[in-house]
Amino acid sequence: MDQKTKIPKIPHAFFKWYCREDRYEEIHGDIEEYYYDRLSKMGLFMARLHYLLDVIRGCQPYAWKKIERSQNTKINMFMSGIDLKTTFRILYKNKLYTTINVLGLALGFACILVIYLKINHELNFDRHHQNYDRIYRIVSHYGDGDIDKRSGSHYPMSNVLKNDFPEIEKSTLIEYRIDPALSTSIKGEFNTPKTYKISYAYVEPEFQEIFDLQWKSGNPESAFSEPNSVAITEKLATRLFGENSEAIPGRQIDLNYGHKLTITGIIEDPPIASEFDMDMLISFNSMKGYQESYDNQDWGFSMGTLQAYVLLNKESVIPDIENKLNMIPSKYIKSKWAEYLEYFLQPLSDLHYNSNYQVLVKEAVTKKSIWTLAFIGAFMLVIATINYINLSAANALKNQKTAGIRKIMGCSRAHLVMQAFGESFTIVLSAMVIGLFMATYLLTYLKEYTGLEQELNLAFDGAMIGFLFVVFLLTSVTSAWFPARIQMRASPSESLKNKLVFYKGGVWLKRSLVIIQFVVAQVLIVGTIMLIQQIDYMENVKLGFNQDGIINIPLPENDKTTLNKLRNELSQYHEIEKITFAVNPPIDRSFWFGEYGYHHDGNVNKVTAHIKFVDQYYIDTYEVSLTAGRDFVDSDSSYQVIINKEFAKKMGYKNSADAIGEKIEMYDTKRTIVGVVENFHAQSLHEEIPAVVLMKTISYNNTAGIKINLKNTEEALVHIEEAWKATYPDREYSYSFLNETIAGFYEKDRQETSLINLFSIVSMIIACLGIYGLVSFMVAQKVKEIGIRKVLGATILNLLSMMSKEFVILVLIALLISVPAGYYGVQMWLEGFPYRVGIKPDVFMIAGLISVIIAVLTVSLRSVKVALANPINSLRDE
Amino acid sequence: MGRLNLGEFEELILLTAGVLYKDAYAVAIAKEISKQGGRNVNVSAVHKSLYRLEEKGMLKSWLGDAQAKRGGKRKRIFAITPLGKKALDESADLRARLRSQIADIAFDWKMT
Questions:
Q1: Do A87 and A57 belong together in one domain?
Q2: Full-model pTM
Q3: HSE-up of residue A99 (Cα within 13 Å, Cβ side)
Q4: Residues A555, A581: contact at Cβ < 8 Å?
Q5: Cβ distance of B74 and A27 shorter than 8 Å
Q6: DSSP codes, A66-114
Q7: pLDDT in the model for residue B17
Q8: Same domain, A590 and A517
Q9: CA-based, 20 to 30 A from A474: which of A519, A636, B21, B63?
Q10: Interface check A38 vs B, CB under 8 A
Q11: Per the CB < 8 Å rule, is A30 touching B52?
């Protein structure tokens, strides 16, 4: 065998050392078999790494030698056996100290591990694509004053990119959708369609050349060239067809009631860290004849979910291509508004991190927030390490006598230093192991909150092990340094005479560290309280319409006669009060919007507004209040519209009633304003109230809004389902309560809250450990003083207040810093919300009070023992 | 029940050892479990359970032949004992019995 591919020596020696001889052959044979196997599959480095891990994991009782007494002295890692024994004895003797150290550090490690995983996850988005550096998305800026940043594109863009741009190697349009209704055929018969909570996209044949897909079966080259072709992921294939996946290509699925697609390939599930994790990819030319809005000559239609991606040549110059892209409006679009359009190329590496543009369905995570998280993580680790340094220094002071005796017995300085390092290695290592376990639990708990879906997996990530190793070295070396110095300096005669060496210089440093710890904890507590208040506010604010007792049902079609049938079926029940068929409820995640022209003194002004397609029952059902003009009546058509006050304001009317009778140009037709409604929230409270125009048409009305009598909710639900079954016997029925949908808008905020809440608790615990360390340090130095005070008649309460006075002052100083810092931080954060709660001073008072109480409790916990002790013991000790 | 105590993972190992019959050694068992169960199993976990099961008397073992792909080392082959079979049967019985006692209504999620 080649020299290089041999079993790594050091782990092998370690294995030989611990493994019992009678099992060495079989166990090592197994590990070796894996090693050679991996060598050919993953390369030398990974194989060696895994070998090392196997050796470490194999170090369990079943493989151990039966230890004989005489072998004990052979233990020689970095200390002699005696040292190892002493270390364990010292750690065992100071059980409380050891536990606090280990737990505090473990907590810090767990936090930083989770944060590391999260950051690693976010930073590696879509990196698996081979052409990562050359993939760009075409985005556009629109408008002359307020720039509207768009990620959407136009259908004709496809041909223009392919014909006019030789610099662009490949290009594809992607049209992104979610939640399809799918059914599969068994012997020609399609089963009942079911809605799947997945995402899918229409893509051009070039998609698979630009992005990396792993094909399990099917021909990638031709998979998207024919109309009505679809490639699905393994995951979806299993869900649709069960286990036997070989026979799937060639079979048919039915998409959204009637769109028959033939499966041309199975692809591996994409990595989670990808924006393109669609479960179904459909050939783009399937749109023709299926999708009404599809027209590859129409430059007027654009939407955020239709995006253009390009793969550039290696030689291409970005600004040149952007310049050329900006010729498109004058050459092709030819609309009077085209001059406000400007194109840009957005690199794939920016996609996940730029919140200015809509991504696909995942939300952008800004680099700033990632680095903030990294900063919090580093901070947690630093303050946890500081605690450990404080505690171990206090302990080293107490143990000066031991060090003195050891020196007398002929122990060298180097040996003492080794001892200190050994102690610190042991503690940090065990903290790290416990931290790993904590992190696994933390991860399962956080999985739903941080979007982390990968398991904490040590074995398959070399970077992770490197990271752990660096953290381990940094923590253990920095924390061993201070106690090692104390031990080294300990003068044998002085320490035996019980004259402890004091280190005054470090006290202020330690105090400021405690202050910093409390500042962090207090700011986080303030943050948590404010977050909770803000969410509470957003959920309970008046939205401008009624949200209670409203049930929404997605409608499969908007045929007039069936809708009438459904209405008749529904209205026979008395607990169903009002019914409306509209595009969506007043507030919704998705919305339609457009620019509508308004003629004013010969000029055309534009108003960007949300448009809602409704029927004449909409305003009444949702109880939107009408401030001027009239509601829709039966005889109205799409030529009559109702606007909200914001729209009237944008048109230039201070008194919104004046807008009535004016005409606005929508979809190339002038339409008359017949009424004005009060402003209402059309989006979550993260967004400002937009201008809204309501148009009476049934073409896009695919959500039913049903107002029920809340006293009879149960019956109403049963009756609605009956009415549904009578109208649409073979369509899937689903419903949602509007107020639950609204609460769902703030799910992400609630998740953030629980994350910050967790960090605030952890930082509080670490701050407590910090005080505890400092108190121990003080107590170690003041034992005699306390004894003398006690002899002179001080009560326990006197002593306790003497000890805690200093810490209350420290906490108060921390409060002085954290109030402005917290105020500023919360202010900054709240500015992201157009509708927000005010910051009240009591928040800071609560945070201050909590930290003072906790500080006093912690101090008392440590000092009460000393205060209660018989003064004879401390004074006699000379 | 439960006189023959068998953990979930141990049961898996025991079953796989039976499936592989004359070819049941640690690496093969680990790979078989990964293949069939889709979960990654570490060889040390397999070793631990194999030796434990042998101690309990549910598996017996002997040294097989040496192979070049294992650096010329022999492998330990494991086989199920009658006691092992009994443990497997009892466990399967218990599961089947409990499963059959679940009323259909417990699976009728529409009701709630």
A1: no
A2: 0.62
A3: 5
A4: yes
A5: no
A6: ---GGGGGG--SSS-HHHHHHHHHHHHHTHHHHHHHHHHHHHHHHHHHH
A7: 92
A8: no
A9: A519
A10: no
A11: no
